[in-house]
Amino acid sequence: MEEKKHKKCLVTGGAGFIGSNLVDALIERGDEVIVIDNLSTGKKENINLKAKFHEVDMCDLDSIKSLFTGVDYVFHLAAFARVQPSIEDPIRANNINLNGTLNVLVSARDAGVKKVVYSASSSAYGDQSQMPLREDMPAHPLSPYGLQKYVGELYCRLFSEIYGLPTVSLRYFNIYGKRQLLEGAYCLVMGIFARQRLAGQPMTITNDGEQRRDFTSVVDAVRANIMAAESENVGKGEVMNIGRGKNYSVNELAQMIGGPIAYGEKRIEPKETLADNSLAKKLLGWEPTVELSDWIVEYKKEMGLL
User: Fold this and answer.
1) pLDDT at residue number 82
2) Contacts of 112 by beta carbon, 8 Å cutoff, 6+ apart
3) How far apart are the C-alpha atoms of 301 and 306, rounded to whole Å?
């Protein structure tokens, strides 16, 4: 481990949910932070005032390339996120998730960045017959989003192998926490439930609600990003699960929040996600620390649902 010094970090999607939490943590450490975000889904008020913000689109290589000069670590979180929007608009999703990622990797390579930490997704697994999900299982994405995030991992590995750019990919499992969206196409199930409860409406559950998800705190995901950037054990395109290692059904989640339930539309989605997080423990020394049920109690107080 190299001596602890302040780093120059660049965060794509730094106005978004996970990205803004990461920016806060980096600045709290004393790092210099550059944020790239086109504000298509991110919010300007999420951005830490101590960060240098550039409202640019990563799909425009010429507009982002110079921003990578002198950067130590790049955290690539910007994406056309979520499954359903990618099914409805696969061309736009492909342009952002693949061409945008390629632009980030090229810019990082040309600037001599020390490491790129790529935000991958557990959606790369799709439906698997065995649980928990391990990184050595074959990918089987069920959506354009899942496919694109998986190909992003392959691009990272190739850039490590061909160009010597240190990269590592973190497969997130259903991240929740501070600043999670409550509206829009990118809203996660927990945000949807909170919004509906605040509006006095029943919580709408897709399919039968027995689909199980490994809900993982944004606090733990942020810590994994920083540990991956600093670890000398990774940088050759490794892929690691970042998940709690424990799952709940959507019905159980609704019961934790409390309130009336309504069953709605049918959707194509994996029946279960559950992370085997032993590789992240081995390579990074990372372990999840936040329990969903504990967090929901505090969240309900904060949202006025108690």
Assistant:
1) 81
2) none
3) 5
Q: Which positions are annotated as active-site residues? A: 145
Query: How far is residue 151's CA from residue 139's CA, in Å, rounded to a whole number?
Result: 10
Q: Does residue 47 belong to any structural domain of this protein? A: yes
Task: Please indicate, yes or no, if residue 279 is contained in any of the structural domains.
Answer: yes
DSSP 253-303: HHHHH-S-EEE-------SB--B--HHHHHHH-------HHHHHHHHHHHH
Residues 6+ apart with CB under 8 A from 169: 118, 120, 152, 153, 156, 157, 237, 238, 239, 240
Residue 75 inside a domain? The answer is yes
Provide the CATH number for the domain around residue 136: 3.40.50.720
d(CA 8, CA 26): 9
Count structural domains, the chain: 1
The reply to whether 15 falls in a domain is yes
What's the pLDDT at 267?
83
Task: State the DSSP string of 216-239.
Answer: EEHHHHHHHHHHHHH-TT--EEEE
Domain housing 46: 8-176+216-243+275-289
Task: Judge if pTM exceeds 0.70.
Answer: yes
Instruction: Tell me what pLDDT residue 217 has.
Output: 97
What are the pLDDT digits (tens) for 34-75?
999 999 999 999 999 999 999 999 999 999 999 999 999 999
Residues 150-171 have a mean pLDDT of: 98
Instruction: Specify the range with the lowest mean pLDDT, choosing from 195-204, 263-272, 292-301.
Output: 263-272
